[in-house]
């Protein structure tokens, strides 16, 4: 493409570092329903493979190996899980005021059931379920935390419906 065009790019995947990749794959597949595309496997630092060289480019030289797994949401968004043997095993303090990735969001019309499942499997509900437009639209949201301390949000409706003016009134 020679001409410089601006158009909406699609979201491909998100990478999440977890302390235990097998437990994370189990949680995200059983509780979130995400598909396992590639079971956890080990990547070693080596220059003679494409993946080894790519990882050296990304992570630098100060590593020897790590585990990786690939999952997918129902709409094809990738979830790339990493576990590094010498990484910090605790989630960083939740601080949305600092620059960086703040959260990701999933969508489930049965927000109450999903939150109950997350909590029953070691996660946390960080706030009460809130309505965006009480008595007008049925859009709900809530921040939760997985068992590894990763904060994310749940919406009951699509991003477009939630924020577009006049969309979907009861």
UniProtKB/TrEMBL annotation:
* PROSITE patterns in the cross-refs: VOC
The question of whether Cytoplasm is a record keyword is answered with no
Classification via InterPro entries: Glyas_Bleomycin-R_OHBP_Dase (IPR029068), Glyas_Fos-R_dOase_dom (IPR004360), Lactoylglutathione_lyase (IPR019883), MMCE/EMCE_epimerase (IPR051785), VOC_core (IPR037523)
VOC domain boundaries: 10-157
What Gene3D superfamilies is this protein classified in? 2,3-Dihydroxybiphenyl 1,2-Dioxygenase, domain 1 (3.10.180.10)
Q: Which residues form the signal peptide?
A: none
Name used for this protein in its record: Lactoylglutathione lyase family protein
User: What does the UniProt keyword field contain?
Assistant: Lyase, Metal-binding
Q: Which GO terms describe its molecular function?
A: lyase activity
Its domain of life reads Bacteria
One matching Pfam family is: Glyoxalase
Tell me which CDD domains the record gives. Answer: VOC_ShValD_like
Species of origin reads: Salinimicrobium gaetbulicola
List residues traversing the bilayer: none
């Amino acid at each position: 493409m020679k001409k410089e065009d601006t158009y909406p790019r699609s979201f491909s995947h998100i990478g999440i570092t977890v302390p235990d990749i097998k437990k994370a794959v189990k949680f995200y597949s059983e509780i979130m329903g995400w598909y396992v595309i590639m079971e956890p496997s080990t990547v070693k630092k080596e220059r003679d493979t494409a993946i080894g060289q790519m990882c050296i480019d990304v992570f630098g030289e100060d590593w020897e190996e790590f585990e990786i797994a690939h999952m997918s949401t129902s709409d094809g968004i990738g979830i790339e899980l990493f576990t590094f043997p010498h990484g910090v095993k605790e989630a960083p303090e939740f601080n949305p005021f600092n620059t960086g990735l703040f959260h990701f969001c999933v969508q489930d019309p049965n927000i109450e059931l999903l939150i109950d499942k997350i909590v029953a499997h070691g996660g946390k509900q960080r706030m009460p379920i809130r309505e965006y437009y009480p008595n007008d639209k049925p859009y709900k949201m809530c921040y939760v935390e997985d068992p590894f301390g990763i904060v994310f949000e749940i919406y009951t409706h699509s991003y477009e419906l939630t924020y577009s003016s006049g969309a979907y009134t009861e």
